[in-house]
Amino acid sequence: MKQLINFFCVWLLITVSHLACANVASISANELIINQMSDVAFKIIDVRTPEEFAAGHIKGAINIPYDQIEAQTALLQTLKPYTLVVYCRSGRRARIFEDVLYKRGFNLQHLEGDFLAWKAAQLPLIRSN
User: What SUPFAM superfamilies does this protein's entry cite (predicted)?
Assistant: First the structure.
């Protein structure tokens, strides 16, 4: 019974998190890798802290911490023609970032599983330190 309750709670959390940002499509890690090898016009945005970014990030990612959206308005405007693939460590910060940019008319995709899933799958990382 306890397992059933735990399963239901996890399912409910996942469902609610998807409803909160239902207007942002998801992209899998495999799809992102394929896009990196093609001519698809997209940019990868890592919204974690500069320290987290330096410790390891996806190749080609641009670091724009989620709490610095207003300070990065000029940079973000240069990225508006592209689809932005957004990720953070686990999803919370990325969703906040996506909600703001969606309202500003940006074309967005959310990396499924965020950085934790990318790292767990042992996909390539770039380290800055």
Answer: Rhodanese/Cell cycle control phosphatase (SSF52821)
- Picking from 116, 119, 123, 110, the residue whose alpha carbon sits closest to that of residue 28 is 110
**Which of 127, 3, 26 shows the shortest CA–CA distance to 83?**
26
pLDDT in tens, the chain (129 residues): 666 565 544 444 554 454 455 489 999 999 999 999 998 889 999 999 999 999 999 999 999 999 999 999 999 999 999 999 999 999 999 999 999 999 999 999 999 999 999 999 999 999 986
Residues assigned a catalytic role: 88
Read off the CATH number of the domain in which 33 is found: 3.40.250.10
- Separation of alpha carbons 70 and 20, rounded Å: 22
What is the domain range of residue 48?
24-120
Sign of CA dihedral 4, 10, 13, 16: negative
Residue 87 lies in a domain: yes
